Amino acid sequence: MPATPHWPPKSAPRLFVPTALDAGVQVDLAAGQANYLGNVMRLGVGGEVLLFDGMSGEWLARVADSGKKHMSLSVERRTREQEKVPDLWLAFAPVKRAQTDWLVEKATELGVARLLPVITQRTIVERVKLERLEAIAIEAAEQCNRTTVPPIAEPVGLSAFLKSRDAGRRLYFADESGGEPAARAFELGAAIILTGPEGGFTDEERAAIRAAQNTVAVSLGPRILRAETAALAAVTSYMALAGDWR
Ligand code: SAM
After folding, report:
1. Which domain CATH number covers 185?
2. Cα 31 to ligand 1 centre (Å)
3. How far, in Å, CA of 144 to CA of 60, rounded?
């Protein structure tokens, strides 16, 4: 039998707001958030909410005023300092919509600092809806207690990505044709993990990536993983070996 949900919830709801937070600041919520707090969470005047703005940690706020379609909050005090996430970026070839949504949600939970969609020769999606992906990253950050939301860059082609990258940031390239085993590959320091689309990289792309400076081809084992699984397996390995799970 399913357990009876605890009501009221044990912890205060947690929301990202695009407003610089400080003690005494008043925050007028967007209609969707006001509806969520007022009608779903049934929060009235005086109710507690945790807020973060992606820059200044987490803050306790209270409902100061609420109506049918609006709610304003008054910020009281900081409850947590801004966190530091490992300096790991994930560059991924976008895949089908549901799988890309899942990738963005899970990469946010796992703690990546930045997401970069990279269009390769075999990428089949035609459009990446950045706003939708940003909303997914925000929701994941709210849920997993992050105080940062990873920015999602505009998609770029693979050659532009290779040309514009800072070679001081090590590029770990997930290569299903073989490479350094993941258990040995990841080292401390600023990094980007790059993973391919459903059809993989072409030989020409693979050669261009391998020729780029400060690049390590990484093997994620003997099985061919789906693109989104490979991206998250690589991020997980990095977090365990060189990130903040150590
Ligand atoms: N079509 C390719 C094939 O059959 O060989 C498979 C591509 S795979 C579905 C998509 C991406 O996931 C690859 O480009 C690579 O970046 C990554 N990947 C999948 N399995 C991997 C593995 N065992 N080691 C390293 N990378 C892997």
Report:
1. 3.40.1280.10
2. 42
3. 17
